[in-house]
Amino acid sequence: MSWNDERVEMLKKMWGEGQSASQIAKELGGVTRNAVIGKVHRLGLSNRNGTGPTGAPAPSTPDPKAKPAAAKTAEAPAPKPAPKPAARAEEQPEPANEPVAVAPISRIKAIIPAGQPLPPQPSANEIDPAALAKVSEIEKKAKKLTLMELTERTCKWPVGDPATPDFWFCGLPVQSGKPYCEAHVGVAFQPMSSRRDRKR
DNA sequence: CCCTGATTCGC
DNA sequence: GCGAATCAGG
């Protein structure tokens, strides 16, 4: 594979979106994250600075400080949080286990940082009691990861209100293929039969 | 252990 | 120019 225009554009786009090199590599295919990083550097966009619009690329400070290695990645996406998920009283975004397209895991990181609604919130409601019990139990063991700590193999089940400090992601090992751990898969993927219309 | 980006250097 | 190996860190 080579860096044709399309691929470079994709790279630029995703990098600009804050995607990690490994994710970009996966998306592009045929390259490793090293290749992506190498390309990023060659393109001169290693620093996720929006190149100065006024042609002022704001070159790194000519700081003669001896310490070329490890340039702390000081990124501050700081999205605008505040969306009250509780507003979702009417809708019930719980995915069933059929043609449901839960958040594609490769996109989840791209979506969340953008201040978008989070994955299926367990509106503890209408869910198999057994599964629920299981959840509350494993939540004690949850690793309580932050957004940045999530990976393809950590449960992305959100717990709490994003607007409060008591917000975290489950983080337990995911069930192969799914975005959630076993317990959360249990409540997220309800058989259509069990979540029958209870009102709707 | 999982992951991140940064750098080096032979190709 | 490319990217694997390596490094430095979370």
TrEMBL record:
Q: Where is this region: Disordered?
A: 42-102
Give the InterPro entries listed for this entry.
GcrA
Q: Which Pfam families match?
A: GcrA (PF07750)
Composition-biased stretches, type Low complexity, lie in 67-77
Q: What is this protein called?
A: GcrA cell cycle regulator
Give the species.
Roseovarius mucosus
